[in-house]
Amino acid sequence: MTRIIQLSDIHMVDQGTLAYDVVDTAEYLARAVSYIGDLLPNIGPVDGVVITGDLTDHGREQQYARLKELLSPLDLPLCVLPGNHDDRDVMRASFPDQSWSPDHDRLNSHVQYGDVHVLALDCLVSGKAHGFLTPETLDWLETELALLGSEPAIIALHHPPFLTGIRHMDAQPLHNAQELLQLIARHAGAKITICGHVHRYITSHQVCGPVMIGPSVAHAVSPDLTEDGASQFCLEPGGFLLHSYDSSSKIFSSHYLPIGPYAGPFPFKF
Ligand SMILES: [Fe+2]
After folding, report:
1. Cα 159 to ligand 1 centre (Å)
2. pLDDT tens across 200-224, in order?
3. How far apart are CA 79 and CA 98, in angstroms?
4. What is the whole-number distance in angstroms between the Cα of residue 267 and the centre of ligand 1?
5. I need a surface site. Which of 27, 77, 183, 204 has the fewest CB within 10 A?
6. What percent of the chain has pLDDT over 90?
7. How many domains is the chain partitioned into structurally?
8. Is 75 exposed, middle or buried (0-12, 13-18, 19+ CB in 10 A)?
């Protein structure tokens, strides 16, 4: 069994500051790391961690350094990709060990955790809230998937390639979502697509199979599906996803895990 943890939208801030003057994102990450550490004996072993963008709130060097320090207790291989709050050049310099694709300037990468290949895509458009995959990035993905054949793969990016019904988030979409979905669908084998950006756990079944948005470990986008829903966030419990791949059945399954601690566990009584 291969197990991969997906964290998303950490929005690390500078020491002594809060995201939107409200959220201590460092404290939320520290709490998540501690909780996952406590959980590992029950859910592990875990082969790697993927962070689906918005690692930082402003893309500053010190924010990436703070993030790495707070993640270090997990002591797991880490694969990162940029979100619209990140800075491509600062991020590249902050993660010199990541095997970025050498073919062009986007932060695309391919890592293998256990039996699963993770293809991480850069859909950042600097200075903009929406996402876009360049023709070079799509060509790179096409080539990587062709080389993998029927091997299991997770395609990871920040902006989801589907609309969620949360209007102010749908107004900043992945512009070439259909191109991505059709590209993935052309390739055989077990594949799931994972994203962030919306700070909520949302799933969708697309032509290429399941597509999941992972929750933030910190603040959530408010669950407002009304026509004129305001751009707001709330502090419902943060969470993360655990993606498992069983090589005998060739099936992925994904757990949503809210970050505790909670009361329990308590034994069932019959
Ligand atoms: Fe975000």
Report:
1. 9
2. 999 999 999 999 999 999 999 999 9
3. 7
4. 38
5. 27
6. 95
7. 1
8. exposed
